[in-house]
Amino acid sequence: MRISRYSKCSNVCGVMAYSYLQRLAKKDRRFMLCPRNIHRMYLAGVMLAAKLMDDNVFNNPYWAKIGGISTEELHELELFALKQLDYRLIISSDEVATRLRELKVLAHSRAAAPGEAGLFLPAPQQPALMA
């Protein structure tokens, strides 16, 4: 995955980004990931986790280049995520372990049925935010 390759962040950052997306979906059931926004929101999550966890942190223009979006859009996504998460980015080791297990199950199920959609998204009849 491009984000992992070029960000060079620790593996836990990806798990934390997934956790942030879970928290966003839980906080507002209207929040829905779709093909147009999933990589943007994941990018913002990985960037936030890297800023919190890693010693070598890139600047926002570099992160924007990784994600193929403008720096301005990345700033907006970062602020959106921070506000929606109430600036609470710390994730316990128990939550990391839980999310890692979920990701392993998801990866296994996607390998078994690659054509099926689904992550943790709210019902499809709800409007997508941040599309």
From TrEMBL:
Return the Pfam families for the record.
Cyclin (PF08613)
Species name: Coccomyxa viridis
Q: Which residues cross the membrane?
A: none
Recorded GO MF terms = protein kinase binding
Give the family per the record.
Belongs to the cyclin family. Cyclin U/P subfamily.
Source species taxonomy: Eukaryota, Viridiplantae, Chlorophyta, core chlorophytes, Trebouxiophyceae
- The protein's name is Cyclin
